[in-house]
Design goal:
2 copies of one chain form a homodimer.
Chain A: E1 3-6, H1 12-21, E2 27-29, E3 45-46, H2 50-54, E4 59-62, H3 67-75, E5 89-92, H4 98-109, E6 114-117, E7 120-121, H5 123-129, E8 132-136, H6 140-150, E9 154-159, H7 165-194, H8 198-205, H9 213-224, H10 233-250, H11 255-269, H12 280-288
Parallel strand pairs in A: 1-2, 1-4, 2-3, 4-5, 5-6, 8-9
Antiparallel strand pairs in A: 7-8
Amino acid sequence: MKVSFIGLGIMGLPMARHLQKAGKLTKVYNRTRSKAGVFEGTDVQVANSPKEAAETADLVITMVSDSSDSEDVILGPEGVIHGAQPGAIIVDMSSINPEVSKQIGRRLGEKGIDFLDAPVSGGEQGAIAGALAIMVGGNITAFQKVEPILKVFGKSVTHLGPLGMGGYAKLANQIIVGIEMQAMAEAFTLAKEAGLDFEALYEAIRYGLAGSHVLDQKIRNLIDGNFNPGFKIELHEKDLRNTLLAAKTLGISLPFTEQVRQMMHEMIEAGEGGLDHSGLYKRMGDSRE
Amino acid sequence: MKVSFIGLGIMGLPMARHLQKAGKLTKVYNRTRSKAGVFEGTDVQVANSPKEAAETADLVITMVSDSSDSEDVILGPEGVIHGAQPGAIIVDMSSINPEVSKQIGRRLGEKGIDFLDAPVSGGEQGAIAGALAIMVGGNITAFQKVEPILKVFGKSVTHLGPLGMGGYAKLANQIIVGIEMQAMAEAFTLAKEAGLDFEALYEAIRYGLAGSHVLDQKIRNLIDGNFNPGFKIELHEKDLRNTLLAAKTLGISLPFTEQVRQMMHEMIEAGEGGLDHSGLYKRMGDSRE
């Protein structure tokens, strides 16, 4: 199976390197060509366009930033759709609006090309370690064909249903994590003002119903007042923006999701979009002063 | 050490029974005397007032509903304060506004009586099993004297600092749990409308940052659409009301806590206060129809 990889950013580059090491990578493409420099002079060919990357490929993986980027590299004038052969499989691992994934899938389907949406969680560290959690939506037969490839950098690869379900699972995940960051922020703001010791409080509540991975992984940030990322607020804000676009299409209202997005947006405007998402705690203090 | 127990409700009765079985209970009092019937004809004396329960006691434990009840049984005309001897210790295990606990403590202190606030988590099941998590604030010497008694029904007994810190820890806990219920509600409302399978989604996200005890313990309610308590919305609403009263005293704003309290209040008004707090998910559906 000939595999091409498009999008060599913070996430994409380590993922492509894992495929290269496993001897499964044929071509790469990146808009800024210099980022593909690590592949020059190797067996991996650096393509000049997504179209060229898709020619001769059985599988094209895309890992870009947002819905419009996925549309551009797949459906644009120099896009994958103009190079891929009928029977090829395209897997978009970007975190985008799942309703856009469905539209892309329809266009590719007209040409006999399979399309899966397969966003990941685990962040840059997960990509480097080859230990991503991959949530996949789309045709089950296509999924089974590409599953061994995805396992090269995936700790878990879960098929969740038809096209779009990978994206919806990712958005559901980001809703929970985003709102929990604010839950932790409010609880520890009360605790701080009351004079409670954070470590003692954490030990008192962590084994009960309030216990969570957010608390376990982020309590240290609150104790130290250090909000280096981690997962950046500006990326989480993008995911929640896509969540709200999808929710609008589905006709539902998500009040806390909307408000967390607004809080994150305000932090971006204030130049704090590069902080870890646990930085919502910092915002509670800033708005108090 | 002679121990009296005041407040034989859903929580208090099983706690008092554990003390009785351990041979550590001298007197009980309950406003509705019939609830003390189980102690008639035993070695445990049924007192006619909180004052009478406190006379001769080294330790008086109170477990009532809300701030005004604690004030009434401790400071009221027939209250504990009129019976307790200097050197006695009063432990209030009710979940109340910690600022009220501080006021009660000042009044008792003037009489040379020690006061600890020691709310619990673990609910009715925890009380019956003798496996409560007990969060204690107040004088450390008094704490050390009563710790062996609290361990009769406590799985963990944690001293968190001066008077009020037990209550603040409990409120911080209830903030996190309440907001997480809404986080889960929004994520699974999106999932439902998108057509995602709840079990598959749960398996895909539970090991990542979105994993929590709320999700582990309440996902079954969402799958089954069964919101039998568990922990009732009307009790959680009371805790959040106390949280907001305390937050006001401290001069801080807790926006999501305020909104969850409002949502729970609306459910109580609609006759759904007896549902489990995971029933916030049901409200998302009701407001959509």
